[in-house]
Amino acid sequence: MSRKEITAALLSAVTMYWAKKTFSVHPEFGIERWGRKRLDAVCMDFKCNFVGIEIKSCIADYRTDKKWRDYVKHVNSMYFVFPPSVIESRLFPEIKAEIKAEGVGILCLTDGKIRVLQNAKKREIPEHEKHTMLVKMAWRTGDNRRTVKRTRRVYVK
Question: Cα(118)–Cα(152) distance, rounded to whole angstroms?
Fold first, then answer.
């Protein structure tokens, strides 16, 4: 499988996992203006707890991403999602220790389902950050100028 296919499969599995836990899942969620920094998914529960998801398809993908530490301050908890090939790698214990030091959790795809390997540390985020995230989520899911491309005339008889 290509990296793109692995990422798509992991995103699908993560979406099912968090939706089953009654979270709303928002893929490719920009946490800074103009989409400069985007989490692969942000999940929100009814208590406005935000879970950030970063999907890594291989070790090289993890090693080249330097901005993931900036994402932690925008969410209550954060998880990396890895395919089985990364978990079975000899470099995984080193990666796991690095991630644990930052308080980030690890999810893995095993037998077609997502499994928690390491729980994420829960942290509080400022109220203004919660407000900003909620407004972005509402804006993204509703019809707006970005999603409605043409102006149509509507007639009622």
Answer: 51
Q: Give CA angle at 123 (70, 47), nearest 5°.
A: 110
Residue found under tokens 């389902």 = 113
How confident is the prediction for the chain on average, in pLDDT? 88
Going by C-alpha positions, the residue among 47, 7, 5, 4 that lies closest to residue 24 is 47
Q: What percent of the chain has pLDDT over 90?
A: 61
Q: What is the pLDDT of residues 99-113, one digit of tens each?
A: 999 999 999 998 888
Which residue in the block uniquely carries the two structure tokens 């790698």?
Answer: 89
Alpha-carbon distance of 157 to 148, in angstroms, equals 24
Q: What radius of gyration do the chain's Cα atoms show?
A: 17
At 57, is the secondary structure helix, strand, or coil?
coil
